[in-house]
Design a protein that fits this description.
Elements (H helix, E strand, L loop, with lengths): L1 E5 L4 H7 L1 H9 L4 E7 L3 H4 L13 E5 L1 H9 L3 H15 L6 E4 L4 H10 L7 E5 L18 E3 L7 H12 L17 H9 L11 E5 L11 H13 L3 E3 L5 H12 L12 H10 L2 E5 L2 H8 L4 E5 L4 H4 L7 E5 L7 H12 L1
Parallel strand pairs: 1-2, 1-4, 2-3, 4-5, 5-6, 7-8, 7-9, 9-10, 10-11
Helix pairs in contact: 1-12, 2-7, 4-5
Amino acid sequence: MNILLVKLSSLGDVLHNLPVVWDIRAQYPDAHIAWAVEEGYVHLLEPLKSTPELRGIDEVIPVCLRRAKKDLFRGRVKKAIAAFIKMKKALRSKHWHVIVETQGLIKSALIASLAKQSMVTTSVYGIGNQTQYSGYEPMARFFYDQSIQVPFQLHAVDRSRAILASSLQAAWPSRDIAPPQFYPSEYLTQLRRQTNPLGFVANQYVMCFHATARIAKAWNEAAWVAIAQYLVSQGLTPVFPWGNAAEKVVSERLVAQVPGANLPPAFTIAQAATLVAQARLTIGVDTGLTHYSAVLNLPTIELYIDSPRWKTEGYWSTQVINLGDMRTPPTVDEVLLAVQQLLA
């Protein structure tokens, strides 16, 4: 059986979709599994590529929608068209028996539709309804052969696994009986052996991901300062990453108030994997980089300030502590207690 997964972006969404690969392998160990993903997130899937020792993802198909859009805006029409044609050819390189689209957006549903070669022997499955606090475009259903209805409130991981299970005519997996799997343990071992991209000494620093695309999800700066000061008192270096000019200003402000804190240079998502793997602890708001640490089952404190905890909390590991909730930010004391628990 040939199965194509379509989850294009972004960081957290791709990470939370990883368990469906393991679910497919449990039911169809010899299936050919491919995944269509935006070019910028291909590296997230590399650790799950099939090897003689591991059957995971057999094929990763880079999707060029973002790059083609930029080329069109810059007047490079021929380049955009050539990239789109190449992508379409890759999407149709095999006859897919099942195509599973778990994003619920028109662009991802379009990619699923482009990959379909037969109206008779290929079925496209996708999410059939809006879920709370998740992006969803009802028009995407027009590209599906079957729309899967899911509960209005459902964790992002559980939602993807439910859609996949229904696509394969299987029962929805129980998070208690069959908890989600993300990366193989060998990947974490590999990350810990790599040269630290910022020259940090392993286990001597804490990643503090304060930045978020939506300012309402940010934690109070005074609270970050209090936590960072405690970390320094424990002989650890708080690291305050940033991704753009505005975030860098906040990082600079935080570091200026905490002697011993670190303002790192910009780094890539791929480098972030090594950084969280070698950190003593990761503390962060509801953002993809924090979730990266959580899916690696590393000591992680996820802070929910203005987003629902039930939607993305790391429930699969005792190493992950989830604090706060929608419009109920955690207190400094709650975070300090969690830090002490994970450092013990």
